[in-house]
Amino acid sequence: QVQLVESGGGLVQAGGSLRLSCAASGIIFSISTMGWYRQAPGKQRELVATITRGVGTNYADTAKGRFTISRDNAKNTVYLQMNSLKPEDTAVYYCNARLGGENWGRGTQVTVSS
Q: Is the pLDDT of residue 37 over 90?
């Protein structure tokens, strides 16, 4: 059974930083494409960043230059370092794993105060 468990969310002031973690189990992590998505109240879930097994990365325009996605295959964990946070980054952040099928974590809340 695939499990993706996010952590690291919280309340931060604008301009601050957070690092999200997603611990994966039940999948062949090293060859999975991992990603972070977010969903703000009243909005659709949107891509933040993805990282392939070859550590190729892709970022939403809103994340470029501020967020960094990385992975540690030895720990089956993917990270999202978020710097220069803005109130509009407030959302529930979800971890995603793709290898054939697709799996989601339950999310972690990020709240950025102005």
A: yes
**Spatial separation of the C-alpha atoms in residues 107 and 114, rounded to whole Å:** 22
Do 77 and 24 touch, CB atoms closer than 8 A? yes
pLDDT at 100: 87
Q: Where are the beta strands (DSSP E) in the chain?
A: 3-7, 10-13, 18-25, 33-39, 46-51, 57-59, 67-72, 77-82, 91-99, 101-104, 108-113
- The mean pLDDT value of the chain amounts to 96
pLDDT at 25 over 90: yes
Contact 49, 98 (CB under 8 A): no
Cα four-point dihedral sign 60, 65, 67, 73:
positive
Query: What is the Cβ-side half-sphere exposure of residue 44, based on CA atoms within 13 angstroms?
Result: 2
Measured CA to CA, the distance from residue 67 to residue 80 in angstroms comes to 7
